[in-house]
């Protein structure tokens, strides 16, 4: 059984429609795929329809932008009720922060002599709920300023580069609580991929476990073999789920092919058990998985 629990569509910063993402997952030989767009559930309906057509099992989720002790943390929330008022409010604030960031980045790019407008971003990201740096990067590619997203981030959009602009991110602990209220389960995405190894460390992860964290994404392209071994040991010490995934973005991210990392079936079964318990505690009609 091949299970990929972290992918993105055009609802955020991927390049496949939700339907095309699910179809590609099926074609790649996956049995289960999760759609986890940034800060939105807007791709869920289309993905569900495609899953029923293709016969693949679909897990509905999202990757929420949070911050903990001044450090950005991406939180994978699986099977929450997106209609929960507190979750809806939290996501709306994050999306507003994403979208207000874009004009500031464009102004900085124009200050560097690059002729780029909001219409250029909209052209490469039609209908996207979570507009952000990847779409500005795509506009720069479309305008011929850079060759690809990687160059756009390296030259202009990464922290410390001339067009980088910080944005609002929700509190990690508060977001975990909101996801629990909405009947969902929380897993930290690529914990050592964004800020280097050992951050968050085991002590921090232990505190987060006490606060309700269910798992960590161990098998990810941003983690080398040593980091994976260490993270797997930490997960074992703390009783956390171990997940693996591609973090697929279509053409938007290299070397993240569907199924390049997968989650063990027994860990997936634990995730579903925790989700069922979370939904029962919350009293919410959590969405559940879409099964063939």
- Report the sheet-strand fraction: 15-25%
Radius of gyration: 18 Å
Oligomeric nature of the chains: single chain
Q: Helical segment tally? A: 10
CATH top level assignment of the domain at 100-157: Mainly Alpha
The major pleated sheet works out as:
8 strands, mixed
Q: So, CATH architecture of the domain at 100-157? A: Orthogonal Bundle
CATH topology of the domain at 100-157: DNA polymerase, domain 1
Output mean pLDDT. Answer: 94
Query: Rough shape?
Result: globular
Q: How far apart are the termini?
A: 14 Å
Please trace the helix and strand order, writing H or E for each element.
EHEHEEHHHHEHEHEHEH
What percent of residues adopt helix (DSSP H or I)? 40-55%
Number of extended strands: 8
Helix/strand-derived category reads alpha/beta
Features:
10 helices; 292 residues; DNA polymerase, domain 1; 8 strands; alpha/beta; 8-stranded mixed sheet
Explain this structure:
The protein is an alpha/beta fold. It has a domain of 58 residues: DNA polymerase, domain 1. The chain contains 10 helices and 8 strands. Strands 1, 2, 3, 4, 5, 6, 7 and 8 form an 8-stranded mixed β-sheet that branches. The radius of gyration is 18 Å and the shape is globular. It starts with a strand and ends in a 10-residue tail after the last helix.
